[in-house]
Design a protein that fits this description.
It is a single chain. The chain has 150 residues and is an alpha+beta fold. The chain has one domain: 3-Layer(aba) Sandwich (Aminopeptidase), CATH 3.40.630.30. 30% of the residues lie in helices and 32% in strands. It contains four helices and seven strands. Strands 1-2-3-4-5-7-6 form a seven-stranded mixed β-sheet, sandwiched between helices. Strand 2 and strand 3 form a beta hairpin. The chain is globular, with a radius of gyration of 14 Å. One of its GO terms (molecular function) is acyltransferase activity, transferring groups other than amino-acyl groups. It holds the Pfam family Acetyltransf_1. This is GNAT family N-acetyltransferase. Keywords: Acyltransferase, Transferase. InterPro entries: Acyl_CoA_acyltransferase (IPR016181), Bact_Acetyltransf (IPR050832), GNAT_dom (IPR000182).
Amino acid sequence: MITIRRTSPDSSDFNKLVEMLDKDLWKRYPQTQQQYAPHNRIALEASVVLAYEADRAVGCGCYRQTDDPGIVEIKRMFVMEEARGKGIAKQILKELEAWAVEEGNTEAKLETGTRQPEAVALYTQLGYKEISKYGPYVDLEESICMGKKL
């Protein structure tokens, strides 16, 4: 059974999963990860969700407020390889969206990449649509930006 928990960026479970995510991203994008890496840092005010299978953290995601009122950016979505295919990422994302709405937000945006077809498929399935590239991703060819009204 999967349990979803809200927490903060200083969670040791979150930080272990983020390390795994970063290793995965370096494998997928060895040439551009140096450009991406600075934008993947998570501030302490971010809202973090963890997925647990039994008592083991197997997935994570978070969001941060953007400079635009009512808009959050989804960040650091990851599910351990051995836990994939169980709908965990969908549960994490739905919890992040619900939390963002509780805080008065009306829109979510995110950035993913061309070498993450499973992520693009998940976001599309949950109603995200491709939007113009924003911020640090504007000139990154491998970048895909998506957004959704909450």
